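It is worth pausing here to work through a concrete case rather than discussing structure prediction in the abstract. The textbook approach is simple: state the sequence, then state the predicted structure, then interpret. We follow exactly that order.
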Amino acid sequence: MSPKTQSLETNDLTALLASLATKIGIGTMRIGPDAEAAYRWLRGEILATVLFFATRSGFAQLAEDAFHEVLIQAILASDKYEPGAVGHKGYFRNLAKLKMLTWVAREKQLIKRSSAMLGALASRPSTSDRADERLVLLEGAIQQLSASDQLLVRLMLQDLSTAEIATSLGSTREAVRQRRARLSRTLRELLNPQAVFGSGADKHGGEPFATAAI
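Step two, the predicted structure:
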């Protein structure tokens, strides 16, 4: 199974995927292989829909994030799918479409909210020349990100937990973890790691993300 699903309850996801394999007629009564087969099938069915909506809406750079979020939601929703009521391909493609419409609306809302967040944080005084230097470096890197990514970084720098960020963004903890890991890597490429990042793991889990720059 994809590593992207590992932070959820792996046994639950495996069971759901194995069950889905049976429902769509590719099951072999072997849980592991069936789960893998269903995962590959489901991935193939929803990928084109996710890419289409992400690109058409101007969020092509976030397509990977959207895909993994919708994929997890599709796996969880597979429990409600009943064969015969509607074709399985149509069911999951339509599910992906609905999830992507919701995702796009959320991203557009985040862009609007990011302006207010940026203004509020920009007005906060720094405490030292060193903090000013680090803030300038970090701000330059953040400005190279998309508006929705900028907002997520700002929330991360407020030392909010993954659950708190997910609630604030109207997203899932899994989606926040995925985006946070990607953004941490991106910022490390844009910055001297010693300028902003600490060496210990924070309460978000995953890579370190110190808040001393703010």
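Step three, interpretation. The chain has nine helices and no strands. Confidence is low (pLDDT under 50) at residues 1-8, 193-214.
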